[in-house]
Amino acid sequence: MLTIQNYVRPETLDEAWECNQNRKNRILGGMLWMRLGRGSINTAIDLCRLGLDTIEESEEEFSIGAQVTLRQLETHTGLNRYTHGAVRAAVCDIIGVQFRNMATVGGSIWGRFGFSDVLTVFLALDTAVELHRGGIVPLAQFVTMPPDRDILVRLIVRKTPGAVVYLAMRNQRTDFPTLTCAVSDLGGAPRTVIGARPGRAMIVPGLPALPVGQWSQDAISAYAEAAAAAVPTGSNVRAGAAYRSHLCSVLTARALTQLGGINGWN
Hints:
Elements: E1 2-8, H1 13-20, E2 26-27, E3 39-45, E4 55-57, E5 61-65, H2 70-75, H3 77-82, H4 86-91, H5 97-100, H6 105-111, H7 117-123, E6 127-131, E7 135-138, H8 139-142, E8 152-158, E9 163-170, E10 177-185, E11 190-195, E12 202-203, H9 217-230, H10 241-262
Parallel strand pairs: 1-3, 2-3
Antiparallel strand pairs: 4-5, 5-8, 6-7, 6-8, 9-10, 10-11, 11-12
Helix pairs in contact: 9-10
């Protein structure tokens, strides 16, 4: 059982940051995973008064506050238009609507969960995080950083021209994913992200080039096999390592084929 001794709602980020420097205090996200843990929290810090629950769109980027819910991502017209529905696809099977109405972007990204659909899709985009004291950091760098006492303020998704496709395999629709895959084409070279390995999502390194407009099925198959070889996988109750490696190849090839269709290359 998790117990909470005190509860505060800071009026400013500085106040929230100061309170969070005590290791016995915790920032609340949607409180959906935290409440399943054990232990004691001295002071629970709720960011609900800081105006971090909106998605703002400009010509250059989307600014997504840490308190934005997964349901807001799912239903945001501009974000899903830009990603060709990939963000909606990444979150629509997470538990249920009631859950997505409470789970937050900040909690999902800060937790760096190995099963995170949210982390997978945003790693495939031109995404950065804004930390209150740490400033703006690329998401790919943030996921490798050790946890600290800073506060995640927002995600920044730059509108880099291109497209993204998101796919996942689940044993049943609302279960945790067995494997997640996002492939984007931002500037002519595909970026492939694999998550639920069952480790946290990673950008796959060292993949062969796919020339713009020349995505033959043979080239896609070779690329997908290279991705499967480069991604470390493991076993848990949902799948074995060998099956995950097979899924990596299958989902990457499917995502590339869909991405080529969006770009008019096949």
